[in-house]
Design goal:
binds glutathione, 50% helix
């Protein structure tokens, strides 16, 4: 059994989608970030960064005490290796896969994540675009996110998935970061046709839908409009 600590966040979705796709047994524990439920000594012992997601595997390969993993990229690798799936075989295919996987985790995720933060709907965090600083920062993050989506679109030209003909870990890392299109400054998928096809393909997978639904229990306390944007409700209209 795996304990999975997360919330309704893009990085948590990566872990939840992987657990669902791999069919591993797990228990989801929602840590409400807005209420600071991740800032406890118990959670600091799991993750010194005091962030989500975190997994604790009570039945690790080879036995022994539970294994705790934080950082969404590391969690994806751990789960895929445990299940023996979602990572291509063959040195060439693996090299290509890890290249795209790490681009998504280290670069794409960063660019869109910072944009999401700058674009936050909650008035407490929203940048004041009336100031030079606010406008410049907002433009900087927005342009970086849009550029990153265009790079992803270019990679997906003529492909069903990021690497090879099957879904891999790279796609799971990417869908977890792509979902709040609007919050990542993507108002429309016009001009991103390859990304739009891939996005529809990924979202139609039942395991992806189950992973995205984790923790969506109406108790987030987020404004309804923001929560709808967070989950890309009605994204088809942008396609
Ligand atoms: N690089 C980390 C980022 C984790 C992260 O930033 N988690 C956010 C939610 S997406 C969090 O827990 N924030 C709470 C806080 O910083 O207080 C990963 O990929 O897991």
């Amino acid at each position: 059994m795996i304990d999975f600590y997360g919330f309704i966040t893009t990085m948590s979705w990566r872990a939840g989608i992987a657990l669902e796709e791999l069919g591993l047994a797990y228990r989801f524990h929602s840590l409400h970030l807005g209420r600071g439920e991740h800032r406890t000594p118990e959670h600091a012992a799991r993750n010194p960064m005091q962030k989500v997601p975190v997994i604790v595997d009570h039945d690790p390969q080879g036995g022994g005490p539970p294994i705790t993993v934080f950082e969404s990229g590391a969690i994806l690798v751990y789960l895929a290796e445990k299940a023996g799936r979602l990572i291509p075989t063959g040195p060439r295919e693996r090299a290509e896969h890890w290249t795209w996987f790490f681009w998504i985790v280290a670069s794409f995720g960063q660019d869109v994540g910072l944009c999401g933060a700058a674009f936050h709907r909650d008035p407490r965090y929203r940048l004041d675009k009336q100031t030079d600083y606010g406008r410049t920062t907002y433009d900087f993050f927005t342009e970086a996110s849009i550029a990153a989506h265009h790079k992803l679109d270019a990679r997906l030209a003529g492909r069903d998935f990021l690497c090879g003909s099957e879904m891999t870990l790279a796609d799971i890392a990417a869908i977890g970061s792509t979902v709040p299109l609007e919050l990542h400054a993507i108002e429309s998928l016009d001009g991103l046709p390859n990304l739009a096809r891939w996005y529809a393909r990924m979202r139609s997978r039942p395991a992806v839908a189950r992973g995205l639904a984790l923790g969506r229990d109406g108790k987030s306390g987020l404004p309804a409009e923001y929560e709808a944007a967070l989950f890309d409700d009605g994204w088809e209209q942008r396609a």
